[in-house]
Amino acid sequence: MPRLVHDTSAILDAAVRLLVAGSADAITIAGVIREAGVSSGSVYHRFPTRAALLAAVWNRAVEGFHAELEEHFAGEPVAAAAALGRHTVAWCRAHPADARVLLAGLGAFEPTSWSPESRERREAGQARWDRHVRRLLAGLRAETGRETAELLLVVIDVPYAAVRRYLSAGRDIPANLGDIVERLIRAQLA
Description:
Layout: H1 8-21, H2 29-36, H3 40-46, H4 50-69, H5 77-94, H6 96-104, H7 116-144, H8 148-168, H9 177-189
Helix pairs in contact: 1-2, 1-4, 1-6, 2-3, 4-6, 4-7, 5-6, 5-7, 5-8, 5-9, 8-9
């Protein structure tokens, strides 16, 4: 009889469904086994501990977000900031479950219990993202004369606040919210 192979993505998707239905505390090996309908061996083979599972859920969500948004850092700073805001909303609309992972915050995934490799993977990705943000902020400061705190509020906090109300309530993000966020960012940076 052929051996049934379960996809790692399906296992991680099951973990994210548990988070969406409850919280990161609901992500347990036993819960994922039940939710995914897979054998314990399938899960333990990939994720020998809950910490490994939590790290994989967080890192996959962040890496997916970063991969889709990194290209928008290029170009003129105000246009880049506006594009980042619009595409943050678009990514959250397209990936609401992974957006809920990010909304839960890193601390919910117990990063101090992760393996050194998982922590290094997270830190390397975050360092790359932070370099992009610093370059964008430097360009925006030069172009607009605004302070860093104000720029962070406009570029980072506005898109986050816009999607948070829908994600935390489990509601669909409106189709026009990206347009609204882009207009707000452009108006504030004008």
